[in-house]
Design goal:
CATH topology: Rossmann fold
Number of strands: 7
Radius of gyration: 17 Å
Order of helices and strands: EHEHHHEHEHEEHHEH
Shape: globular
Bound molecules: BIS(adenosine)-5'-pentaphosphate
Structural class: alpha/beta
Oligomer: single chain
CATH superfamily: P-loop containing nucleotide triphosphate hydrolases
Length: 221
């Protein structure tokens, strides 16, 4: 069986985190979301968090150097030897080159890049309806993944909030940064024959089904 050393690539709000959590449940590989790691640092008020808070809230990208160290440390952990999902990294061509260096140093290789393809209209709709629990970080959607009770977390009853960078104006900026900086990675990984494009416009169950089938094929290769 091949290991699942994966990158999940796609526009903000495509559903990378949502699918990744379901893949983690099925295959037990760690989900390495640079967005979650940075948000945790902000919540904890750490040095890193203080450095990145305003950049994140404005929808800009954090420096490549910070990301290099963060990802290298995380991929060096033992739990990554049997697979991993990188979600939100790499985010530009320079970070893709950094990842090449990190993987080489750690003697790891990439199995595939899963590109979640969704239209701009759909991601704007998904993001504007996303709500998160500030306590446990569980992600909801007011249309597609409603909490059981009003706008409270099912797990701990905490009132749900909107991410600071999910405000309409910032979302448009994030999408433009995705087009300018991140979407060139589609071509880069296509040229390397590593990208698999998934139609991620359907329901969560539908997208999960396509991704699970794809991963099964990859494991058998
Ligand atoms: P990050 O957290 O990585 O944000 P993102 O890439 O913009 O991705 P999102 O978390 O917005 O979306 P997602 O695709 O995970 O969607 P989700 O599953 O939640 O980064 C945030 C910031 O951190 C960046 O702007 C930057 O500042 C910094 N950063 C992070 N990494 C960095 C890096 N490498 N370099 C530099 N800076 C970095 O789904 C969205 C919503 O839709 C949810 O409500 C969900 O319930 C719903 N949904 C999901 N799937 C479906 C579906 N199939 N149908 C209907 N609804 C769905």
């Amino acid at each position: 069986m091949k290991k699942l050393n994966l990158i999940f690539l796609g526009p903000p709000g495509a559903g990378k985190g949502t699918v990744a959590k379901d893949v983690v449940e099925r295959y037990g590989v760690p989900h390495i979301s640079t967005g979650d790691m940075l948000r945790d640092a902000v919540s904890a008020g750490s040095e890193l968090g203080k450095k990145v808070q305003s950049v994140m809230e404005s929808g800009q990208l954090v420096s490549d150097e910070l990301l290099f160290n963060l990802v290298k440390d995380r991929l060096s952990k033992n739990d990554c030897t049997n697979g991993f999902i990188l979600d939100g990294f790499p985010r530009n061509v320079n970070q893709a080159e950094d990842l090449d260096k990190i993987l080489k140093e750690l003697e790891l290789s990439l199995t595939a890049v899963i590109f979640l393809d969704v239209s701009e209209d759909e991601v704007v709709k998904r993001i504007s309806n996303r709500r998160v629990c500030p306590k446990c970080s569980r992600v909801y959607n007011l249309i597609s993944l409603k909490p059981k009770k009003d706008t409270q977390c099912d797990d701990d009853g905490t009132p749900l909030i909107q991410r600071e960078d999910d405000k309409a104006e910032t979302v448009r900026k994030r999408y433009q940064i995705y087009i300018d900086k991140t979407s060139p990675l589609i071509r880069l990984y296509r040229d390397r024959n590593q990208i698999i494009t998934i139609d991620a416009s359907g329901t969560v169950d539908k997208v999960d089904e396509i991704v699970f089938n794809t991963l099964e094929e990859l494991r058998q290769d």
